[in-house]
């Protein structure tokens, strides 16, 4: 048997350490590995992650539409033929519509090198401004709120191990017990001490582990946070010395919360009892060290940025950010959710977290890329706006999708399908025939995580090494090879397919930016448990803890941001009297394109389901296990009823991991946050029907 290769799980942002042991007959076995984020633990997804390497569903040859006709089936093709079709389609679109006739859609699962190369490919090889990625649907609201408060966004500005030093934790909108189970180890002290407070409209396993569970009406977290701030002010819990020394803007926020967010009003808005609200604030403020953590539940709203800002304001008022054992952080979800947003595949950013509209940033990156700054396009459309423009007279007519399954994961999924079908050319690069790949004109098969080298940046801002343990099957290529080959065919020749060379270029491009990787080498990453950015030179130790002395704002102070509660974008009415909220299950990751193909995971969580409260089930005469239809204003989805008191009586819950009729995103609302452009995934209005009754 070959030697175990130390690497990391391919799925979520915890990036648990594991060993891969290559097997003589092909494939590999997973073994646990002690690493600071997982301490030897892995969840079900991690333990079974090697199954996909040898899956019969894996793509090993390019596919194209027979005769180039979309009505005909996908058939195997040579790489040359497939790439020529892509290049011909790109040239056609550019001739008709100019550079923005071609769009690129990336993913938060791509390695740092691929995310970097994808952004560069879009802006240099294609010259298009139309590039964004699925991270826009993930943590963009927290990124926007973090940047406006602290001057820079790093999911957790401290290592996970610091959680042990926090006497109390407020966790908002995270079901980590299901999404990243090994994370729960880091909350052991607070669970034991009875100082874990969870905010979630569902009594998830995470909420059930808390000493106090606040269960608001979906879409009212912002009011809840403002109510907590009100209590902090009125009950004299604000850290006045910290506020005076380390922040600006408090007076306006203080006036705002005193004027409108007293607990009884907040109880009417959120459904959270005023005494519970007070108890939560006193629990946090009474601790010598405390942390406030948010995740998708707070962020995936049309007011997600303001919601996170309100929780950041609370953390600042209590004097937490930048103090050892205390702070605010966002639990990023996707495997490279952090790195994926730093290296330039975002519509408005260049590598190193630089702003695309900053002349100095453009000049720096253009010099690394060997192009004129003026040749770089400006900011493009955000993810949903980009998808919604496809195939329209003003929008792109060609789309290249990498590591994303938008047919399942984007909001208002039927509309997204229609837009994809209106394209002249859809190219999907993936390892399996996902729901999005099925609609493509050209499908390009890729290597998998265990077959390639690279780096990832986990939810702590820790840069890690992904190592190649196996040879890929003949017929597949890495995204870096695909991009280099396409770039060469398009006449752009500065695209390496070697991940190490790409990383070295990324280091130069990020140098001096907010996410500075200049001093991070593969050797340093391999020598220990990764290196935290910013790390400006090779003698620098990296920065596990941000903000200890100053925040990354021009004056070094954190900014309070005044925000107000506002209603959900789509409220209930007589026809749609329930809220729908969406989320995840233990056995599946993101759109499920990978995990639904792992037999053990598919057996444990085989199909879409709908959680409803027993009172609602009684009223509608719904029995456990029967098929129900959730009907909204944009479509309907079907799932099996799970009757449970863990969901509010006014709310139903659907996970979003399945395709077909069980797609929760057939229902979700594409109303966008004005700052982050995040869609309102977490709440829309629906009604419930018994399928058998029709
Ligand atoms: Fe760890 Fe996340 Fe992988 Fe589970 S899915 S093993 S929590 S990295």
UniProtKB/TrEMBL annotation:
Coiled coil: none annotated. Keywords: 4Fe-4S, Iron, Iron-sulfur, Metal-binding. One of its GO terms (molecular function) is metal ion binding. CDD domains: MopB_CT_Fdh-Nap-like (cd00508). Gene3D superfamilies: 2.40.40.20, 3.40.50.740, ADC-like domains (2.20.25.90), Dimethylsulfoxide Reductase, domain 2 (3.40.228.10). One of its GO terms (biological process) is respiratory electron transport chain. Pfam families: Molybdop_Fe4S4, Molybdopterin, Molydop_binding. The keyword Transmembrane does not apply. GO terms for cellular component: membrane. It comes from the Bacteria. Residues 2-55 form the 4Fe-4S Mo/W bis-MGD-type domain. This is Nitrite reductase. It comes from Vallicoccus soli.
């Amino acid at each position: 048997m070959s030697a175990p290769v130390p690497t990391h799980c391919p799925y979520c942002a915890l990036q648990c350490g594991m060993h891969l042991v290559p097997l003589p007959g092909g494939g590999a076995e997973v073994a646990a590995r002690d690493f600071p984020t997982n301490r030897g633990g892995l969840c079900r997804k991690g333990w079974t992650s090697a199954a996909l390497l040898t899956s019969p569903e894996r793509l090993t040859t390019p596919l194209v539409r027979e005769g180039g006709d979309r009505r005909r089936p996908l058939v195997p093709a040579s790489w040359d033929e497939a790439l020529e079709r892509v290049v011909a389609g790109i040239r056609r679109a550019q001739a008709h519509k100019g550079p923005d006739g071609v769009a690129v859609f990336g993913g938060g699962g791509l390695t740092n090198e691929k995310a970097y190369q994808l952004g560069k490919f879009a802006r240099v090889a294609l010259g298009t401004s139309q590039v964004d990625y699925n991270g826009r649907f993930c943590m963009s609201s927290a990124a926007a709120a973090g940047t406006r408060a602290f001057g820079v966004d790093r999911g957790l500005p401290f290592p996970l191990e610091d959680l042990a030093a926090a006497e109390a934790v407020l966790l908002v909108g995270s079901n980590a017990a299901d999404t990243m189970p090994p994370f729960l180890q880091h909350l052991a002290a607070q669970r034991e001490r009875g100082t874990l407070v969870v905010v979630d409209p569902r009594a998830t396993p995470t909420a059930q582990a808390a000493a106090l569970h606040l269960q608001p009406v979906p879409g009212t977290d912002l009011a809840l946070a403002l109510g907590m701030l009100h209590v902090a002010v009125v009950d004299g819990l604000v850290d006045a010395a910290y506020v005076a020394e380390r922040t600006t803007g408090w007076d306006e926020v203080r006036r705002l919360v005193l004027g409108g967010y007293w607990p009884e009003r907040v109880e009417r808005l959120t459904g959270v009892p005023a005494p519970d609200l007070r108890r939560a604030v006193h629990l946090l403020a009474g601790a010598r060290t405390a942390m406030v953590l948010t995740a998708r539940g707070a962020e995936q709203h049309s007011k997600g940025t303001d919601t996170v800002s309100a929780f950041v304001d609370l953390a600042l008022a209590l004097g937490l950010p930048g103090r050892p054992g205390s702070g605010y952080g966002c639990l990023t979800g996707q495997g490279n959710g952090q790195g994926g947003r730093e290296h330039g595949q975002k519509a408005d950013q260049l590598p190193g977290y630089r702003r695309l509209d900053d002349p100095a940033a453009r000049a720096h990156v253009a010099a690394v890329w060997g192009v004129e700054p003026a040749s770089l396009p400006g900011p493009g459309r955000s993810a949903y706006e980009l998808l919604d423009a496809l195939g329209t007279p003003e929008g792109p007519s060609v789309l290249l999708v990498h590591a994303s399954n938008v047919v399942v994961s984007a909001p208002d999924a039927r509309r997204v399908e229609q837009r994809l079908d209106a394209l002249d050319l859809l190219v999907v690069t993936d390892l399996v025939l996902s729901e999005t790949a099925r609609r493509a004109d050209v499908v390009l098969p890729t290597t998998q995580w265990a077959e390639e080298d690279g780096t990832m940046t986990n939810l702590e801002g820790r840069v890690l090494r992904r190592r190649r343990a196996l040879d890929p099957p003949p017929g597949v290529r890495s995204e870096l090879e695909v991009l280099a080959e396409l770039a060469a065919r398009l006449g752009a020749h500065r695209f390496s397919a070697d991940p190490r060379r790409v990383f070295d270029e990324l280091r130069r491009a990020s140098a001096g930016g907010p996410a500075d990787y200049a001093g991070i080498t593969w050797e340093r990453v391999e020598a220990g448990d990764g290196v935290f950015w910013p790390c400006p030179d090779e003698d620098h130790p990296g920065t596990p803890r941000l903000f200890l002395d100053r925040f990354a704002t021009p004056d070094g102070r954190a900014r309070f941001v005044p925000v107000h509660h506002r209603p959900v974008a789509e409220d209930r009415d007589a026809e749609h009297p329930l809220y729908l909220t969406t989320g995840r299950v233990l056995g599946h990751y993101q759109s499920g394109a990978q995990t639904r193909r792992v037999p053990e995971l598919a057996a444990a969580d085989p199909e879409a389901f709908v959680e409803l409260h027993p009172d609602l089930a009684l009223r509608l005469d719904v029995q456990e296990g029967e098929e129900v239809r959730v009907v909204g204003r944009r479509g309907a989805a079907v799932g099996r009823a799970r009757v449970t008191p863990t969901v509010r009586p006014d709310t139903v819950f659907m996970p979003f991991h399945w395709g077909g009729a069980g797609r929760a995103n057939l229902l979700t609302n594409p109303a966008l946050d004005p700052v982050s452009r995040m869609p309102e995934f977490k709440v829309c209005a629906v009604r419930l029907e018994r399928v058998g009754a029709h």
